[in-house]
Specification:
mainly alpha, 12 helices, about 70% helix
């Protein structure tokens, strides 16, 4: 009964009807991102690889890698996942205002633009995983069956990002300043998330920030299965799934409540 109700929901029905358009929008976003670039899509591989090399040299020489074993893989996992969240949500913010010309002329479910912005970043993220795989091989990471389970937190993270993107896209239509404020927030969040450093160096009184951070939950899960070769704590995954469900419900509700007013503000 519940599954039938969800399948018949207008959100799902429109999503199935406009799948082809969604794919075309994803391709367009990726082309626009690398337009007039000499290396084009290869930057998806080069950018994380070069950043990892530079940051590893800096932190390994100055901070001795904070005593973290296999610091390159530790750093790359954290950076790739946070970069996915950062680029996807930033793309979602301008997904409605940036496509105002199309939205004003023809009827298309507006959330398609937001989801396309998020999924184009997901495609880039998947391509950049090739770099992670090569670094894992180069640093002699022991491959285990548990690595398959890294897909679960990543799927939950994508739904969390889509929900966050719907909220941000709605707010950006009525408050253009949100785009600039969000840039500041992303910078603060990056330094508050143990991407470059181990979580133990954060004072005990501030560790609640890590505990309440769904992005860090995804990072912890992936680091555990890759670097420790064991399964992550199920409660960490449950927290991430719960955050994704809550954000998706809130994002869809907010978007549907205000989407009819978008046309007056874009």
């Amino acid at each position: 009964m519940l599954i039938s109700t969800i399948k018949d929901h207008r959100f799902i029905d429109n999503f199935n009807r406009y799948r082809y358009l969604l794919i075309q929008l994803i391709i367009r976003n990726i082309k626009l991102r690398y337009r007039r670039s000499v290396l084009g899509i290869f930057w998806s591989f080069l950018e994380p690889l070069l950043s990892m090399i530079v940051l590893t040299i800096i932190f390994s020489s100055i901070f001795k890698g904070f005593g973290v074993s296999n610091y390159p893989v530790y750093l790359l996992i954290g950076r790739l996942i946070f970069q996915l969240y950062s680029t996807a949500t930033t793309a979602a913010i301008s997904s409605i205002t940036g496509n105002s010309g199309i939205i004003k002329k023809v009827y298309i479910p507006k959330y398609i633009f937001t989801i396309a912005g998020v999924l184009s970043s997901v495609v880039t993220f998947l391509l950049s995983l090739v770099v992670l795989l090569l670094v894992m091989i180069a640093t002699h990471v022991h491959f285990t069956i548990y690595m398959i389970f890294a897909s679960l937190p990543l799927i939950a993270l994508v739904f969390f990002i889509i929900g966050t993107g719907l909220i941000l896209a709605t707010l950006a239509v009525f408050f253009r300043d949100i785009r600039h404020l969000y840039g500041v927030f992303i910078t603060l969040l990056m330094y508050a998330t143990p991407i470059f450093y181990p979580p133990q160096i954060v004072p005990e009184s501030f560790r609640f920030i890590q505990t309440l951070n769904p992005i860090y939950a995804a990072i912890v899960c992936c680091r555990t299965v890759v670097l420790d070769g064991t399964l992550y704590d199920p409660s960490t995954l449950l927290f991430l799934v719960g955050s994704a469900i809550f954000t998706m419900v809130l994002g869809i509700a907010l978007f549907y409540k205000y989407q009819d007013r978008f046309i007056l503000h874009i």
